[in-house]
Amino acid sequence: MKRIICIGNVLVTEDRAGFDVFQRLRSMPLPPDVEVIDGGLACLDLLRLVDGADHIVFVDSVADDDIEDGLVVWDAEQVVSACNSEHYGHGSGLPYLLKMLPAVAEHAVPPIQVVGLAPGYSDRTCRQAATLCLLLVGASVARDGGHA
Amino acid sequence: MPTIQVPMNRVEGDLEIKAEIDGGVVTRAWCSGTMYRGFERIMIGRGPLDGLVITPRICGICTTSHLLAAASALDDITHAAPPPDAVRLRNVALLAEHAQSDVRQAMLMFAADFVNPAHGAQPLFDDAVRRFAPFRGSTIVDTVRETKTLLEIVAILGGQWPHSSFMVPGGIVSLPSEADLMQCRLILRKYRSWYERRILGCTIDRFAEMRTLADLDAWLDEQREHADGELGFFIRYARALKLDQVGRGHATFLSYGSLPIPEGSSIEGRNGSAHLVPPGFLHQGILEPFDPMNNAEHVRHAWYIDYDGGRHPFEGETKPYASGDEGTKYSWAKAPRYAGQPAETGPLAEMLVSRHPLLTDIVATCGVSAFARQLARLLRPTVHLPVMDAWLRETDGDAECYRPPGEVPDGDGAGLCHAARGALGHWIKIRDGAISSYQIITPTAWNASPQDCSDTPGPMEQALLGTPVADPANPVELGHVVRSFDPCLVCTVHTLRRGRTTGSLRVGLGP
Hints:
By secondary structure, chain A is an alpha/beta fold. Helices cover 30% and strands 22% of the residues of chain A. Classes of the chains: A alpha/beta, B alpha+beta. Strand 3 of chain A pairs antiparallel with strand 17 (506-507) of chain B.
C-alpha cells in the first residue's frame, strides 16, 4: 500500500497545509493502492502507518525563504538533517520520526518524500501539491489533477 | 546575581524557564508559556457537540483525554448516564494513552538527560549511554518499538485513529465485537509482558507486594534482573545524581478523580471510592475531599485582562492582553489554584491521593522530589495494566454502549478526568443552543503555572528553588526537575507558534 499522510493542525493557520491538501485529495479519484490519511498532530504514532508501506509521501507546512512557488519536495534524508533535538517531546514532529525510523522499522524502510507548503499558499498551490503527491506515489494523473 | 534562561522549547515546544542563581543554587524561578493558544475563543458560538471534534486536536498526545473531558462535560449537561460497558471502554481507551505516555516520557524524554555530558564522570554513565543515547540507545529503540502498538487499542475501540470521536454524551458510538475485544487484550498482554521483562525486571504481581522504601531497596538487591531492569537502573542512577534531593515544590497535590468504576465491576476504587483514581486535595499530609467549586484561575501574572483574585472556570474568561505590565505578566498560561493554593497534579499526585503504600512511604521518608515524581510515573502501569485487562474481560461484545441523552439543552457542564500528565477539566456553557463559554484547564496549567494574585509561585517554579546548578551554561539539573513534571505546553498556553527553527528549514509548524 502507498500512503499519503497529511500532517499538521487544522486549527492553526500556519500549520494547516497538510489538512487542506488532505481535503483536496479526498475530493479526487484515487488509485486503489493509495491511501490518504489525515495524520493530524501525531508523531511517533504514525510509525504504524509508515512501517510496511510500499511508499510514503508526507504533506506538511514548511517555512523556508528559498521555496519557489511555495511548494517543495524533500527526501527523508534532507528532513532528518534538520532534526536538531535529541529529546522526544510533545512538540516532536516529522524529523524525529524519520530519524528514529531506521532503528525501529520492522520492514524495509519505504521510499519517503515530504511535500512542503510554505505559509500563504494559494488554492492553486494546494491543488498542485495534491497532484504532486499522486505523481510521487506513481499514480497516473488526469488533466484535472485526479487519478487517470 | 546571575540569571539564566533555559529554553525548554528544545523539548516541550513552548516553555521557557528563567532562573535566578545565588551561591550556586536557584533562588527564584519563572515558568513562561510563550504561545497564545486561544482554543477557548475558537469554541464560542459553535454547536454544543463541536468540542468532541475540536478539542481532541489540542494535543497530539492527549487526544483521548480531551475527547473524554469534552464528552463528560456534555454528559453533565444532559444528565446522561453512560452504560457500564461504555464506561469500561472509555476508561480502557484513556488508559491506553496513559500506558504509552508513561513509558515514553520516562525513557525518551526524562532519561535523555541522563546522557548529558555533565554526568560524564558518573560510574553508571557508560551504561546510561548504552541505554539512552538519542535515536540509538537500546532502551530508546525498544521503547519506541513496543509502545507503538498501544494506541491500536483506541483505534479498535473507537473505530478510527487518529481523531477518534467515538465518545459522545450517553456513552460511545462504536460497537466493538468479541474479536475486537480479544485483539485489544492480545495487544495489552504483549505490552504487559514487555513492561514486566524490560522495565520492571519482575512481574507486576511481585512488584505489588512492595509497600515501603525498605521493601524497594531489598527488591533491588534481590536479583540481578531487578537492578538491571530499566526501573532498577533508574533508581540507581537517579540516586547517584541526587534526584531524590531536588524538586520538592509546595507538596500540595490535587486529583479530580478519574476512571469511574463501572457498575458490576470486579475492580474496586481505593477506600471505597467511585473512581479508580479517587478525588482529593492533599496538603501538609492531610487529605481533604475534592470540591470542584474550589477551582479558580488567576491572571495577575498572565497576559490576560486582569480581574481580582481568581475565577472559577464557569465564570472565567480568556481575553489576551499582551501589552503593558511586562514586568509583572510573563506567561500565556493562567495560574489555576485550588482553594487559593497552588497544587501539583500528575502520577505522583494520583498515587499519594490514592494512598499508594510504596509512594506514600517514599514521600513520607524522603520527601517530594524529582525522583519520586518519575518513580510514580514509571510505576503507574503496575496499577493500570491489570485493570485494563479486567475491564476488557468484563465487557460484553453485545452489550449496550449508548443511551441517547436527547438534545443538548442550555446549561452548564463540567467534564473532569485525568490525562497522562494529571487533572484535566473542560467547563462548557450552552446558551440559545450554542457554546457561550468553554474553559479548559490542563495538567500543565496546574504544574507550570505562573505566580497567582498573591505572587505565590506555581508548583514547578517552587520546585526549582534550591536546585544546585553546577554549570549555568549547561543547567541539566533544572531539566531534571522540570521534566519530572512532564510539562506539555502545547495545550496549556492559551495563535500561533512560529515553528521550530531547524537550521535553514522548519518542518511541521507544530501541534
